[in-house]
Amino acid sequence: xxxxxxxxxxxxxxxxxxxxxxxxxxxxxxxxxxxxxxxxxxxxxxxxxxxxxxxxxxxxxxxxxxxxxxxxxxxxxxxxxxxxxxxxxxxxxxxxxxxxxxxxxxxxxxxxxxxxxxxxxxxxxxxxxxxxxxxxxxxxxxxxxxxxxxxxxxxxxxxxxxxxxxxxxxxxxxxxxxxxxxxxxxxxxxxxxxxxxxxxxxxxxxxxxxxxxxxxxxxxxxxxxxxxxxxxxxxxxxxxxxxxxxxxxxxxxxxxxxxxxxxxxxxxxxxxxxxxxxxxxxxxxxxxxxxxxxxxxxxxxxxxxxxxxxxxxxxxxxxxxxxxx
Amino acid sequence: xxxxxxxxxxxxxxxxxxxxxxxxxxxxxxxxxxxxxxxxxxxxxxxxxxxxxxxxxxxxxxxxxxxxxxxxxxxxxxxxxxxxxxxxxxxxxxxxxxxxxxxxxxxxxxxxxxxxxxxxxxxxxxxxxxxxxxxxxxxxxxxxxxxxxxxxxxxxxxxxxxxxxxxxxxxxxxxxxxxxxxxxxxxxxxxxxxxxxxxxxxxxxxxxxxxxxxxxxxxxxxxxxxxxxxxxxxxxxxxxxxxxxxxxxxxxxxxxxxxxxxxxxxxxxxxxxxxxxxxxxxxxxxxxxxxxxxxxxxxxxxxxxxxxxxxxxxxxxxxxxxxxx
Lengths: 325, 325
Fold this sequence. Notes:
Chain A is α+β, with helices and mostly antiparallel strands.
């Protein structure tokens, strides 16, 4: 990996997006979301995902001009239609709206239909905690994970994000329902490593730690076997019911044409709910009880500072590609 | 196991609870929640848990006369104090309140502090779907699960329930964050079986399918390793922040004195949100896409009918104990 200064990354992505038809403030926000994803160490969903995103715009899967629109309102819950706009901009707008609803109702929920891949789900968790809110959001995906008991993909890996504000460093969980993403399997294979725990089945249906065997079989493992399979199903069901949008089984199975996804955004306004102001002590107490064990996003502050100082890591061929766009 | 007619179980439990100081309608409801738990096949949390519950009342961990009380209200979110009342009655009252809030706001949330073990979490999911709502609830517990990377219990197994209404049979997920409960480990051991997948570490820190080895080490496995450990932490954090109640690290580690738990209840009013009335078709479509694979609560209707017809299964020594109370 080479390192490129954050400001240079930002400027370049923004330029590419502008040329693709993104209006200025939207090009700026989308560029920032991509750049910050790599800055925070989620390389698979930052710069490395950018060329695929551009391809989706060129193939008209993603409409750069489309803006999300509210289609129904029920007090603290709203339905929005993403009109196939950019997934990250739609998601950002919907979390923003959920936060606004939470200021009025204590909590708010926006259910979004017809959107596209949101890239890094954790972005919207960080967005919530930076506004002082607890954020919860999830997305469905194309079928990319065999349900427990089956051998071909029937459920999505449906990433779930839960984010809690904390002055000393927010706690942001961002996890898919598969034990390892296909991106992670590829990384292990390229490094010539086996997985630290079973990650799926080989073609003979045996549990394995061999990443290549799982890539070949397509049989990744849901977290907790039947449990993650069930949780994935419930997230898809709630998304489709709340938004009126598509469920996993209706989404095209192709990484470029995967579209019309369904997402849910929830925010709890902690400043209102925690009037006594004990929230910092509550989180500090819980994290302290782990006595040094790792927790979600624990090491991000340090990594973020390092990447801002030394430059954003990116594979040279990916950066080359972005420079040629 | 012997089988006892449902009506007889109900009458007997109610009688015991009345003598313990439960007012009549509360004795009736608590008895029904226990009896229905065994009726639905969750034997570990129904009649088999009743003697421990009675012991908690006798030891004054559970106050049969205490009623939950609203302590703060923020639109769609409320804080309640369980005043150490019976966990199942407190949970039932709070899900009822979340459903009422959802009728007014689209969704509702009740965060409950100072409550006791809710027995079977799925009960409150069923309660929500029977009212036409999507129900989500979770509880924290005493530390009973090593966080990922550690070897002594630091997090709770914090069961999470998600329930979606469906006329042909609601879909109710009720899962703890441990791969197997200690009750499940005991059952496998007593049957002389090994676990179907790794369930924890033995004393040497090796992953194992031997239930006795995990009982001996106390090192059960979180679902999805680091992922379930992280999810458990987030559930505890959200519960403590929203309710102002205790976090896992503050709860006594003892199955009798485990108390002052924290729970969260969420309900979405589907009748309001799904005005077009597509919800039955949406759920049927998703379940149909699984083409026969098992999903949460799929087999409960049949089991429930069988247990109502033939009698509620209970270990003879447990029923004997209940008859002597």
